[in-house]
Amino acid sequence: MENIRKALELVHTAKSLVILTGAGASTESGIPDFRSSSGLYNKPKRYDYPAEVLLSHSFFVEHTDIFYEYYFSNLVYKDAKPNDCHIALAEMEQLCNVKAVITQNIDGLHQQAGSSNVIELHGTIKRYHCMKCNKPYSLEELEPSSVPLCTQCGGIIKPDVVLYEEPLNENDLMNAIQQTAAADVLLVIGTSLTVYPAAGLLNYYKGNKLIIMNMSQTPFDNSAKVIIRDKAGRSMKKVVSLLKENH
Ligand code: NAD
Predict the structure, then answer these.
(1) Domain assignment of residue 55, given as a range
(2) Which of 38, 112, 154, 213 is placed for a possible disulfide with 228 were both Cys, Cβ 3.0 to 4.6 Å?
(3) How much is the pTM?
(4) What gap in Å lies between CA 247 and CA 242, rounded to an integer?
């Protein structure tokens, strides 16, 4: 509870609070992360390829059918709902100076919870486009049992998700860098901070009020003012209920 109170003090007095989230922010919504013991990387293997290969651009091009089979059964959770962490972050916008939620997640749950300025560094499973004519599609328009083809030109439809080997959207990355550089408090939730360039954002943070809320150690723990090693939903719910008491 002591660390929750320290985190509360920092977010309450922040002039510019920026939040960086990863897959751990969504595990309590039933979406597995990559690197926890119950994460995708530790799942019994059904395919002859590691997840980084299955989710790479070249694999998408060469084995689109296997890619989509893996993608729809491991990354798309249509019925997932925002959990206490997403809800608390959205509520925080009314209680303190939240400038942006930068997320590595592709599940759209921050927006669904009501966060208003969300930067999706790795894209989203909600949107798709035809690789030939660029026609946009939504997740709901796709048939998850086969390779989705464009109804207009027959081209292959690709998710608007940043795959391994693909660069991040330049505008999103610049926006995320600017927000991080301008933040006086940075709250990092549910990320192993091992995937670059997302983890590299921490090198742009100039303040000394870094809060890390993560179940396991991260390479940036030494730089943190407060570390909370508990479930993000429970921790964020406490922070927000204390913020409400102080409001
Ligand atoms: P990661 O799997 O590398 O790390 C997740 C971290 O979250 C771990 O350190 C784990 O200890 C922690 N964690 C798990 N559950 C938690 C909880 N309830 N509370 C607090 N901490 C918790 O994930 P990452 O760092 O985000 O990077 C991996 C990549 O995975 C990203 O590129 C992301 O796009 C992708 N991904 C996204 C989703 C999603 O959209 N929900 C799901 C899986 C993977």
Answers:
(1) 40-77+133-161
(2) 213
(3) 0.96
(4) 9
